[in-house]
Every structure is written in structure tokens, then in C-alpha cells.
Specification:
The structure is a single chain. By secondary structure, the chain is of the alpha/beta class. It has ten helices and seven strands. The chain folds into two domains: 163 residues, HAD superfamily/HAD-like (Rossmann fold, 3-Layer(aba) Sandwich); 83 residues. It has a seven-stranded mixed sheet, with helices on both faces. Helix 5 packs parallel to helix 10. It is elongated and about 65 Å long. The relative contact order is 0.19. Bound molecules: magnesium ion.
Length: 252
């Protein structure tokens, strides 16, 4: 399914396409669930912590770190979550265990985060048409760069911006503006923004007047009112067909 919601916007060949990463290029929740479980299992093996106790304290630790840091890249840091989790479990500063849990989390996460069908083809299609591709993503650079290289996409992007680089998560316009600056497309309005999150990606995309595309799948609510995207789609193969049709029109 691909549906144009905003009929007033003329959609033409873009000057660049910006993509979110998490839950846009792959499904976040199954990976997060398996990674969290692997951490729980490890804590159980190492320290005899029950799953119930782990989950209770993990939620508490996440909430504390998020409240402490606000909408910043490090508010998503698993290392900070696990460090605080160990403190909440009464274990004080267990540095090696905190580092080990972080590694366990991301290793398991990446093993369970296959790219959606059609994502690679879209990137190849855009590259073939010489349309620059950017990434705008929340979280720290180390893990986001690790994810993108793990996916085998290290040669795809013309610009990558993480929220760590600008000190604030999306929808802060600094994230989007830095991506355009890196692409030498400052003040360019014919940009597409593709993401899953109505607040972060759609509101953020609108701040640079981009054409906004929301990727929908299980667990995602479609943006409404000021968060309403210009286009919704649930399948990258269809988005790719749409792009190919658009280019054909232009070529004729
Ligand atoms: Mg996302």
C-alpha cells in the first residue's frame, strides 16, 4: 500500500532523500525484545537475578536515565541503562558487567534486525538516479554507525547525522539542517523525509519543508493533524515502484 494523503503537494523528483533508521529500515520491536531477553538471561546466569526483578528494575532505570537526560542521544544509551540497572539491583559500580550487558544487548539486537524487503533496492535505485541519500537518526553515533555497517550499507549514504552530533533528538531541526548542510542542499525544499515516527520524523521533516513519507507497520500509529504525513506506505517495494514511475514521467 502507498497512499498520497496531501493532494495539495506536488511531488516531483527529489533533490535528496533522508531516511530515519530505527523502525523504518527494519522492525525495531522484535530485535529489542530478543536483546532485552538475552540481557535478562545473562543476569540470571551471572547473578541469579530473576526475569521479573530484572524487568522491573530495567524499566525504572530507563525512566530515570530518560528523565535525567531529556531528548538527547545518550537518553537511549543501553550502557547507561545497564549501569543504573546494576546500581538499582544493589550491586554498585559493576563496570565489566555493565559493558558486557551492553555488548550482549547490541549483538543480539543486530542478529535479529533484518532490513525490510526492498530497502536495499530503493537505495540502489536512488544511487542509480544520482539522488543523494541521507540518514537522520536518534541515538549515539557509535551504535548507529555500527548498525548501518552491520546492514552492509556503509557505501550507500552521502550524509549521516545522529542526534549525538547536534546534542538533541529529532524533531529538533538541527538534525535535519545538518544533514542538508552535509549534502550542500541548505535551503533546498524539494527533499523527501522517510520515517516511522509521526513526532520525530514527520514533524521534523516539516521543519525543513520536506515531503514527508510515513512507513507504517504493526505497532505504528499513523500521524494525524500537524503530524500527518504527505504520503503513507507499508512496503518499500511499492515505494520503489512509485519512485520509478516518477522518474519515468520526468524522462518522457
Ligand atoms: Mg524510527
Amino acid at each position: 500500500m502507498l497512499k498520497i494523503l496531501n493532494k495539495n503537494k506536488k511531488i516531483i523528483k527529489p533533490k535528496a532523500v533522508l531516511f530515519d533508521t530505527d523502525n523504518t529500515l527494519y522492525e525495531y520491536e522484535p530485535a529489542n525484545k530478543k536483546a532485552t531477553k538475552a540481557v535478562g538471561d545473562k543476569l540470571n546466569n551471572l547473578l541469579g537475578i530473576t526475569e521479573q526483578e530484572f524487568l522491573k528494575k530495567y524499566i525504572q532505570s530507563k525512566n530515570e536515565i530518560k528523565a535525567q537526560l531529556g531528548k538527547t542521544a545518550s537518553s537511549h544509551s543501553r550502557l547507561l541503562y545497564f549501569q543504573r540497572l546494576l546500581e538499582l539491583l544493589g550491586l554498585k559500580a559493576q563496570l565489566l558487567i555493565a559493558l558486557d550487558l551492553e555488548q550482549t544487548f547490541w549483538r543480539t539486537f543486530l542478529d535479529n534486525a533484518p532490513l525490510f524487503n526492498g530497502v536495499r533496492d530503493i537505495f540502489f535505485e536512488l544511487k542509480k538516479r544520482e539522488i543523494p541519500i541521507g540518514i537522520v537518526t536518534d541515538l549515539t553515533s557509535h551504535i548507529q554507525l555500527r548498525k548501518l555497517t552491520y546492514f552492509g550499507l556503509e557505501d550507500i549514504f552521502d550524509a549521516v547525522v545522529t542526534s549525538e552530533e547536534v546534542g538533541a533528538d529529532k524533531p529538533n531541526e538541527k538534525v535535519f539542517k545538518l544533514a542538508l548542510k552535509k549534502l550542500n542542499l541548505e535551503n533546498e525544499e524539494n527533499i523527501w523525509m522517510v520515517g516511522d515516527n509521526p513526532d520525530a520524523d514527520i514533524i521534523g521533516g516539516k521543519k525543513i519543508n520536506a515531503i514527508t513519507f510515513q512507513k507504517l507497520h504493526k505497532g505504528i500509529s499513523q500521524g494525524i493533524n500537524e503530524q500527518e504525513p504527505d504520503v503513507i506506505f507499508d512496503n518499500f517495494i511499492q515505494l520503489n515502484h512509485y519512485i520509478q514511475k516518477l522518474f519515468k514521467k520526468k524522462d518522457e
